[in-house]
Amino acid sequence: MTQRSLYLFCYDVSCSRRRRRVQRLLATYRVEGQKSVFECLMTLAEVADAVEQLRRLIDPQTDRVHVIALDPRLPREGLGRGQPWQGGPHVVA
Question: Please, which of 22, 37, 42, 75 could form a disulfide with 46 given CB 3.0 to 4.6 Å?
């Protein structure tokens, strides 16, 4: 089985149409998220594919996307209602 890791995708997209397309793409992999920050459980190949698709979706002159690999060894703290993903079954169809 291919190993999945958590990645944080953060974006600031100026055009509503492009922003909706970015949201739909990342929603495929999302385990948690809110507005323009998505926590995604992905393989390296899926990250590479998503980044390539994001390159085609955004305007690099006005938009930006950050992809951050989350190290599972480091402690995580969340404030507010949202709960960090605790592991367990996850299926990407």
Answer: 42
- What contacts 35, CB < 8 A, 6 or more positions away? none
pTM for the whole structure:
0.74
Q: How many CB atoms lie within 10 A of CB 43?
A: 15
CB-CB contact of 72 with 5 (8 Å): yes
Distance, CA of 93 to CA of 81 (rounded, Å): 27
